[in-house]
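QA checklist item 7 of 12: single-chain prediction sanity check.
[x] sequence parsed
[x] length recorded as 187
[x] structure emitted
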Amino acid sequence: GWPQGLERLASADTPTRQNAAAELAKRAGTAEEMLLREMFSDPAPLVREISLKTLRQHGGTQSLNQLIDLLSDPEPNVRAAVLKVFVESPPTDLIPRIIEYTKTETDPDLLVHAVRVLRDSQVPATLDALTKLSKHESWRVRAEAAEGIGKVATRHSNDNDASRADAYAALIALLDDTDGFVISRAV
């Protein structure tokens, strides 16, 4: 039902593969899950991004695990696309793996995306991760972490635990930050 679609996905020409991937994304369903997972190995970052977005829309739990595995992709744009997909609907059961990811990622832009995923999740354990990220060397990461701490701590205001106290202490410490934007987020 897709004339020469597979041939175009296997083409040596990158734009041809990208166009075929975009076309497949429009027509894909759960039956194409295996094909979408195979597209993860494509050398073109855009093809991998298209496949992961499509897989996220149509895939199940196994697909989510494969998406989170893409956080180790060498291409930053792919990692960013994965995080953006997760910001739209944070996968509660994968939050521990995203927290682990924040411990190894060095790109501040990607850490900002990861903080947004954590900030919007409903998992109380994110508070500890955000508190640690509030001490990051990048002012952008610290600012996002401050905002995230405020949202997560407010959402779990009925929880009376040490992690909330640590989170509030981190916010107070951020009031002495060298960057005014970070201070405004902490306030």
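[x] summary fact logged: The chain has twelve helices and no strands.
[ ] second reviewer sign-off
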